[in-house]
Amino acid sequence: MNIIKLLTILLLTGGSFILGVTLNYSPTPDLVKMAKSSVEDYLSFPESASFKNVKYNFIRQTADKGDLGYVCGEVFRVKNARLEGYKKFIVKAYSDKQGKVSLSIPMVEGDYDLMPKEMVDSLWARYCF
């Protein structure tokens, strides 16, 4: 009787191990959290950053079945030791089914070194609805 119990336990343990190895778990990335972290890293004073109205806007699915979208919102900003208040930000985000995530450099209102103001405003109006 003890041999049957032992064999049953070994069979269940072995089956559980094989099932665990064959299943591939990939967690769903939190794009909003990752974009907030990216914006904080971009700012001069990241410890002063606070966010509001942050959301992910899905745009389309890519040819390789990845999701493309924009994380938009407002961040409280301090620049050159001056309080600037809440400024709009945009981060382009791509994620695929395997959990790979790519984020663009954040575009924060008031920083027009990367893109002119008109282009940033156009992106906001088009993708941050």
* Percent range of helical residues: 25-40%
Count up the domains. 1
Question: Uncertain spans, ≥5 residues at pLDDT below 50?
Answer: none
SS summary, helix count? 3
Class from helix and strand fractions? alpha+beta
Number of strands: 5
Shape: elongated
Binned strand content: 25-35%
How far the N terminus sits from the C terminus, by CA atoms, comes to 68 Å
Radius of gyration: 23 Å
H/E order of the elements? HHEEEEEH
The average pLDDT is 86
| Largest pleated sheet | 5 strands, antiparallel
Write structural notes for this entry:
This protein has 129 residues and is α+β, with helices and mostly antiparallel strands. It has one domain. Helix content is 34%, strand content 33%. It contains 3 helices and 5 strands; from the N terminus they run ααβββββα. Strands 1, 2, 3, 4 and 5 form a 5-stranded antiparallel β-sheet that branches. The longest helix is centred in the first third of the chain and has 21 residues, at 2-22.
Describe this structure in a few short sentences.
The chain has helices at 2-22, 31-42, 117-127; strands spanning 51-61, 67-79, 82-95, 101-103, 107-108.
